[in-house]
Amino acid sequence: MSDIDCHSEMVNFHRDSVTLSSKQQGEMRDRRNAGRTRLESGLTEAKKSQPKEICSQGSYQMRTMVQDDQNEYDIDDGVYFLSDDLKDGYDVGLTPLAARTRVCDALKWDGRLKHEATIKRNCVRQEYPEGYHIDIPVYRIVTTKDGNGNPVESYELASGDEWTKSDARAVTRWFNGLVGELNSGEMDGSQMRRITKLTKKFAHRTQWKNQTTSGICITKLVVDNFKANANRDDKSLRDTWKAIDDQLQKSTEIKHPVLSSYLASAGDEEVGFFRDCLHDALNTLEVLDNGDCTRAQAREAWGEVFDTTFFSDEPDDGDDKQAKGAAMAVTSVQTARRNDGGGRFG
Description:
The strands form two sheets. Strands 1, 2, 3, 4, 5, 6, 7 and 8 form an eight-stranded mixed β-sheet that branches. This protein has a two-stranded antiparallel ribbon with strand order 9-10. It is built from twelve helices and ten strands. The chain folds into two domains: about 5-20 and about 170-335, no CATH class; about 20-165, Beta Polymerase, domain 2 (2-Layer Sandwich), CATH 3.30.460. It is about 45% helix and about 15% strand.
């Protein structure tokens, strides 16, 4: 059995074609902060209460966003209001739709943006001409008391026509906590984040993104099936994919990471699409098991899987040690961002 080591190529691919640059991350923060300022100004203008807090969440906060060839990406920026601050002029609590409408009106109060904010089922969306958009879920904070009379806060999302128990920050804490646990042990905790991003990059290519499953479903699948492999991201990725494939061949059900519900149910078409694409990719990678597999063949297989010439374009044997050393330096020092400002993200 062949064992072509493509770790350096995989790390370079992650660095150059998957991870966001510092410049890109700065642009996203600027957009997010501008949106927060606009919301605050709009609520002030309308003489409405400000949210108690605004919290970034999802892939932006988990640092698992990936570059996107069409420059499409979203930031989830949840706004959390005290229940008493979500009332109308008659002191009646706002419906979920009315709460989202208040936030939407605040974002477009001065009419200066080319694209006005729109109301979605689970959020308010602000789009920008460059392709960016910010999703703003609206929450209310409900305070009750426990058995000892101590106040306990819970969070409800304005979803459709209902207030639904939800707090996306708990999902962020779940993922970042697992990464932290791995980093505190012998395994490379940042490897799980890299494998998550590589899998999202694979699944969300331009021609698939409208058919395949969501980033949170992919993240949960990677976490549940992650196979660490020290200094071998290529093997870790393939072994993790094999475990995911085994799970999805049995069922497309994916449990929610922090709630007693499901992200996807049995027979979910989008998860099924991802499963089929992943299975095909694993078939392509079977060439790595041939005893006479060459490095060129291995690189070609990985390139086919990711629909790129990046792997074949990497320096050949003469420069391979130098390339691997550079990749390892990046892995140990900086795994979640780049410094050069090239590429796009989503």
